[in-house]
Specification:
The protein is of the alpha/beta class and 177 residues long. It is built from 5 helices and 7 strands, in the order βββαβαβαββαα. The protein has one domain: Response regulator (Rossmann fold, 3-Layer(aba) Sandwich).
Length: 177
């Protein structure tokens, strides 16, 4: 199995990960008022993935280990699922977090993605381990992907100050990258 780990701050309790690559993410690189996380992570994923094929992605729900309410990992999952040019729309995504699943779902509207097929969630603590290679990982079928599209709800950003819809904004971002 080949994994892409998205976060360099993951604890050592993940064992037997197989062959992994990683995207180190340093929250301190977010500087300036023009910084756009979605564009940054999309460009990072596109550069790292290239022509490679991964069997699964391992994503920390909170990329900033000092802020348990950030939930940037959910945005990464949406980017992977909704970006055909990354060629991994059907690939399983394994989430690692410190909160239980119910708490994450209550705290963030984007957490509905955790309830779709092809998503796995582990609570990590000093006493637990996530045996990633023991999971039965399979890509989503086209029917399951359509169910995913029907189920999710991507809310408009709170600072939305344009007449374009979210879909149009996303298309414009992808077009100009």
């Amino acid at each position: 199995m080949r994994y892409l780990v998205i976060n360099n701050n993951l604890p050592d309790v993940i064992v037997k990960k197989g062959d992994t690559d990683s995207i180190p993410f340093d929250p301190q690189r977010i500087v300036g008022e023009n910084y756009n996380f979605e564009v940054d992570i999309y460009q990072s994923l596109k550069q790292i993935i290239g022509e490679d094929k991964y069997d699964a992605f391992i994503v920390s729900v909170n990329l900033d280990k000092n802020n348990n309410l950030e939930f940037d990992g959910l945005d990464i999952a949406y980017t992977l699922r909704l970006s055909p040019e990354l060629r991994h729309q059907h690939t399983p995504i394994i989430f690692l977090g410190s909160l239980n699943l119910e708490q994450v779902i209550r705290l963030n509207k984007k957490a509905d993605i955790l309830l779709t097929k092809g998503m796995f969630y582990f609570i990590l603590s000093s006493e637990s381990s996530a045996y990633i290679d023991d999971l039965k990982l399979t890509d989503l079928t086209p029917e399951e992907y359509i169910e995913f599209i029907d189920r999710i709800n991507v809310p408009a950003p709170g600072n939305y100050q344009t007449h374009h819809s979210v879909a149009n904004e996303w298309a414009l971002i992808r077009y100009f990258l």
